[in-house]
Amino acid sequence: MYLKFIKFIKNNPILKVTSLNSGAILVKMITGLITSKLTAHFFGPVGIALIGNLRNGQNIINTVASLGVQKGVVSHTAKGKDKKKLLQILANTFFSLGLLVSVAVSVFLLVFNNKVSYYIFQTNAYAWIINLIAFSLPVNTLNLFILSILQGLSDFKKVISINIITSLCNLVFFSALLYFVGLEGAFITIVLLSTLQFIITLYYAKPYYYLFKNLKLFYFPKKVVSSLSKYGVMTLISSITFPLVYLGVRKEIMVTLSSTDAGYWEAMSRLSSHYILLMVSVINLYVLPKLSSAKNQNIFKETVLEFYKWIIPFYGLGLIIIYVLRYYIIRIVYSQEFLPMQDLFLGQLLGDFFYILALVMTYQMHAQRQVKRFIATDLFLAVGMYIFSIYLLDVFGLTGVVYAHASINFLYFLLVLFIFRKPLFKHSK
Fold first, then answer.
1. Among the ranges given (44-53, 228-237, 308-317), the one the predictor scored with the smallest mean pLDDT
2. Which residue has the higher pLDDT, 358 or 144?
């Protein structure tokens, strides 16, 4: 029976990728939960909230520096993975774009470090962290591009190995610096983790060094840049808008309620991010490359239905288990001080369920560069999340924010389902 089950997984591509990736995600989840536990123990909800601000701010900066074209890199690499010369042209373009834009963003951060620090942390005291982000940014951007190339080449084992080693290093350095330096040590680890990952990535990318031979510093072929710009616009919208929304909502919670309540909400969001990560990783590793190389609309329908059939039932069951065990999860992951966040689980889990149902369909917009559709749906989700959160926060208090999360993600799912109703429900002849 066991051998049949293993054979079944090996013969099912999406389950094979999921099983390979689950080890990396498990390591990342465990290390992430431990770091959350340490932060909660030493600095409580307020520390959790400040780290949430840093992560949101850094996500915005990284996205701008990379022009948000990571999914475009994956898609282009997947389409041209059998053409060595084309891959070299693509790699050279990615390298030039990443270096030029990231250096420009770094200079901006160094000049306006005090203002950026105040926007993210509501204090100028962390301007030095902004400087640290600026100096590490070019390396971090190149790391993102190389990882995206490996992903596009479907070299899942290398990507997964890189992620596992990075997660373990994160745990070691985060724990040590948090203990010896304090909250600032945690900030340093978060900022420099991608720089450390770059060293690991370079080691695993050795078989593909030929792609970076004869690099030209300023190489921007019009056709490739034009195509990548469409992916960039799509990703920039979501990767900048959502962190801005989270920063805005967190600030509103601090003003309306307290920094402690903001910490509860961030703790819930952080917990959510761990299991969402598994779903997003499967979609990135399996769904996006498959949709990018698809020759007809039937592949989209088959891929989505396959995901719903083999992945969603396990995901839904996992969410139910998390809800039932929420009291124990809070005690284990955080501390007794965080028990008031039990009321946040239902709304958060419902919203996360509908979000993944919609997300697997929206990747078709990336794969087929449906820019207008993607921007419209993402803005609908982001703006709706902010408006619903602010309104329901006044009505229901902190639980109103997760009610907003559930409501807008349900509407988002219905909207995306309506957009793709024809390819999904139309009978193929």
1. 228-237
2. 358
**What's the one-letter identity of residue 309?**
K
26-51: pLDDT as tens digits: 788 888 889 989 999 888 999 999 99
Cα Rg for the chain, rounded, in angstroms?
21
Residues 6 or more apart in contact with residue 244 via CB below 8 angstroms: 56, 60
> What's the pLDDT band for 13 if we cut at 50, 70, 90?
low
Query: What are the residues whose beta carbons fall under 8 Å from the beta carbon of 359, sequence distance 6 or more?
Result: 279, 280, 283
Query: With the CA atoms of 243, 377, 149 and 174 taken in that order, what torsion angle do they form, in degrees rounded to the nearest 10?
Result: 20
**Structure tokens given for 252:** 């509103």
CA dist list (Å): 147 to 77, 190, 202, 206, 390: 11, 18, 9, 12, 37
- Both structure tokens of 189: 């680890």
- In the three-class reduction of DSSP (H, G, I as helix; E, B as strand; rest coil), residue 44 is classed as helix
Top pLDDT among 99 and 7 is at 99
Amino acid 274 reads H
Domain range summary for the chain, segments of one domain joined by +:
2-425
Q: Go through the chain and tell me how many residues it has.
A: 429
The pLDDT, as a whole number, for residue 386 is: 97
Beta strand ranges found along 63-138 (DSSP E) = none
